[in-house]
């Protein structure tokens, strides 16, 4: 997962709690989740369109 180990993710989470604050962290985590879902949906759409434009399913669209 992007080369991140559990330890690195834990450190990033601790830093986020310190910088953002524990009260605002859930809001920012929700926004990050929405952004990632939107990005993945657009990526899937782009992969599908690319596969259709080359006339096959050879791009591994899932």
Could you explain the architecture of this structure?
There is one protein chain. The protein is mainly α and 62 residues long. The chain has 2 helices and no strands. It has helices at 6-20, 25-53. It is elongated, with a radius of gyration of 17 Å. It starts with 5 loop residues before the first helix and ends in a 9-residue tail after the last helix. The model has no long low-confidence stretch (mean pLDDT 86).
Which structural class should the secondary elements be placed in?
Answer: mainly alpha
Assign an overall shape: elongated
- If helices are DSSP runs of H or I spanning 4 or more residues, what is the number of helices? 2
Number of strands: 0
SSE string, helices as H and strands as E: HH
The chain-level mean pLDDT equals: 86
Work out the radius of gyration.
Answer: 17 Å
User: Could you give a short account of the major beta sheet?
Assistant: none
Portion in beta strands: under 5%
Question: What is the helix content?
Answer: over 70%
Q: Regions with pLDDT < 50 over 5+ consecutive residues?
A: none
Distance between the termini: 18 Å
């Amino acid at each position: 997962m992007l080369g991140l180990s559990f330890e690195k993710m834990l450190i990033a989470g601790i830093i986020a709690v310190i910088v953002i604050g524990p009260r605002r962290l859930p809001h920012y985590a929700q926004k990050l989740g929405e952004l990632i879902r939107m990005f993945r949906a657009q990526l899937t759409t782009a992969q599908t369109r690319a596969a259709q434009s080359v006339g096959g399913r050879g791009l591994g669209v899932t």
